[in-house]
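User:
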Amino acid sequence: MKSVVVGIDVGGTNTAFGIVDKDGNFYGEGSIPTKTYPSFEDWAQSIHDAIMQTLKQQNEQIEIIGIGIGAPNGNYYNGCIENAVNLSWSGKVDVVGKIKELFGNNKLVVLTNDANAAAVGEMVYGGAKGMKDFIVITLGTGLGSGVVANNQMILGCDGNAGELGHVIIERGGRSCGCGRKGCLETYVSATGIKRTVFELLANENIPSTLRSYSFNDLTSEMIYKAAVAGDAIALKAFDETGKRLGYALADFSAFSTPEAFFLFGGLAKAGELILEPTKRYMEESTCIIYKNKIKVLLSELNDKNAAVLGAAALAWSELS
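Assistant: Predicted structure:
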């Protein structure tokens, strides 16, 4: 009987999962749409059923011995998601307790912030192997971050440390789901770049294929494709997004002086369109003592699932 764990990445749009062995090999994977389940209990039952169905489809005899979960505002210390602004479940949700109830109380279940899970995945299976100091920036529906310093994940006294997406970069700026204004994720995320595009469309008299889309219909992938095709508004949106991110990374450099920043998530799949302006503006704004020392890299796991692998790696570390 082969022992495996399940890694679960709870995103604002979709929840992905993978059945993973200790070496990072997948024995099945899948996803469910997070937003379809306004009730946490319905979501939990659905993810349980999807995992068990995937398990049944495997030819090899395998046994789930642990479950690792990465989620927005996932608190490692108490096993709860707490007031996640990009999820429809309000308040404090006991994720670990419910998953144990569904899979069996004998199973190890551990929860952490989704960006922390991505950082663990990068450290164990990706480009951060051997690094003791690095930060993973996840660019999805919002902006998350996992901060590793001296080979330790920074969790803080209450498990909520490292929420760099909610550092205010413009006082009185864009409204954020957290209730404040001007948070970094309102400018740098899949949602943020859409808002930038519509501001540019309103303020610039430039022809653009993006003018034919409503806000709800437009996606960051469409903006990427328009930029590749040379659309001026799309290209300017990526430059503006890279500027905001680059300036923010310059400030974050003073916090822990990481060896590298890794960009992960849907928006990071734009590659050089987001990477080049981010690096350029970061170096432009970085304090002289940090200049030309800190790398900005794309995650080596963007074609896999760093958050799923990270959540699985977290479970394996708890089991070892």
